[in-house]
Design brief:
Helix content is about 20%, strand content about 25%. The chain is built from one helix and two strands; from the N terminus they run αββ. The longest helix has 17 residues, at about 5-25.
């Protein structure tokens, strides 16, 4: 089902997600050939900052979410 979103808003989101892969924290996936990748990365804190020194289980979790387009494939309308 199509998104109920203005075209310029969708364009801004796609350009921003593309920059995550081309010049941001998701650059390591940009080496995949024949695939255009759009992504968002972030961290999630799972405990108070004071507990970070107690071990890795108290560190923040990194996450990556994205979607991709294979070569120049255009979906059927």
């Amino acid at each position: 089902e199509p998104l109920n979103m203005r075209h310029d808003t969708l364009d801004l989101i796609q350009r921003s997600m593309k920059k995550v892969v081309t010049m941001g924290t998701g650059m390591s996936v940009s080496r995949v050939k024949d695939i255009t990748i759009y992504a968002k990365t972030s961290t999630a804190q799972n405990s108070s900052l004071e507990l970070r020194e107690r071990g890795q289980e108290f560190l923040e979790h990194g996450w990556f979410v994205g979607y991709f387009q294979y070569k120049d494939y255009q979906p059927l309308a």
